[in-house]
Amino acid sequence: MQKDLHISANATDAPSVLMGACTALAPAPPQPVERAYLLQNLRREAIELAALGEHPQISTLTGFHLVVSRLHAIAAVTRQCVEAGISCESVRSALQKARDVCSVSPFMRHITEWPRGYPGDFQIVDYICTQQNCATPGTVAYWIEEYSLSCGMAQQHRNKVQRQAYEILRCAQAKASQHVEPRILILACGSSPDLQLVQQQLSEFAVNLVAVDHDPEAITVTRERLPALVPNLSFVCGSALRRITALSRLGPFDLVVAGGLFDYLDEAAAVLLIRAVCTRLLSDSGQFFFTNIAPGNPWEDLMKYLANWALIDRSERDIEDLISKAGLETSLVRFERDPTRLTMFTTINRPQAPAVIRVGPEPNDTFPYHTAG
Fold first, then answer.
1. Which of 192, 194, 244, 314 has the maximum number of C-beta atoms within 10 A of its C-beta?
2. For domain 156-298+310-349, is the CATH number 3.50.50.60?
3. What is the pLDDT of residue 28?
4. How far apart, in whole angstroms, are the C-alpha atoms of residue 261 and residue 61?
5. C-alpha span between 342 and 6 (Å, rounded)
6. What is the pLDDT of residue 30?
7. Which parts of the chain have pLDDT scores under 50?
8. pLDDT computed for residue 331 by the predictor
9. HSE, side-chain direction, 13 A CA sphere, residue 319
């Protein structure tokens, strides 16, 4: 016969009894044996990916599917390891053979080593935009690179560059129709692939463009690739947050664009940038357009553990929280997703009564990157 759960009439006994009942229902934490088993599985998957180099069909299109299937298997076991609380170092160690194979791909080697000293540099964005596979054809590395450049995560990069270009051109056209010379600011511009897409159209307008990047070479490349816009283009070398005062002297701006920058900003830096842009840089009818990777990226674990590319994702609610902490009304914001649903497009309209704030010492050129992992 099933016994009834008896709770003592003594109130002091009730919490301990209830706690015991809840504990019995809660899932047990992963045990060392389970973690060891998961890491063993991960090592096995890594070895199997490396072994594909000897497969007789690796040089054919079949090789692509064999490699992708192994990458998905690695992603699945990696996710289990992460959810079991296994450390990043242990996961990467278990994946070492796979990481060695991946490093043969120039693309994967770049996003592992980050030769320019920071993640998401302009060279890798150019790599993604051009989709040129630089690995040796017919090899495991070639198919890894082919998959990396064609997957949804790469496509969202191209989508946001195209959307940024659209927003820039739309602003220029709208102001031109009002016989107003638009002022547009691009933060963390990189090589300015967005401006490259609309260079010829923009050259037809009297537009004032300001491009900011902390990497001097990115600014040099931008200047070289935008000959038609150079007469209308000013450059500021430095981190966005440390150049607010200098940028305010070049404004106010009808549009401020930040593509991908928020993927690397922690909460404090993101709040500070939103507040500074919206209260100090925008014109009366100005807009702040920025992108941020959204939660649920299925390539997250492959990026972080097979390579070394970790992003800070945010949902609509997360960005609303940032805007609120910046002292702005969330009614000023509009959200959209790119076609892959992996990237958030956020547009903030200038508040009616901006506050005056101060943002750190001007000479300091240290960029407030925060990279998870």
1. 192
2. no
3. 53
4. 36
5. 51
6. 59
7. 1-26, 353-373
8. 86
9. 27
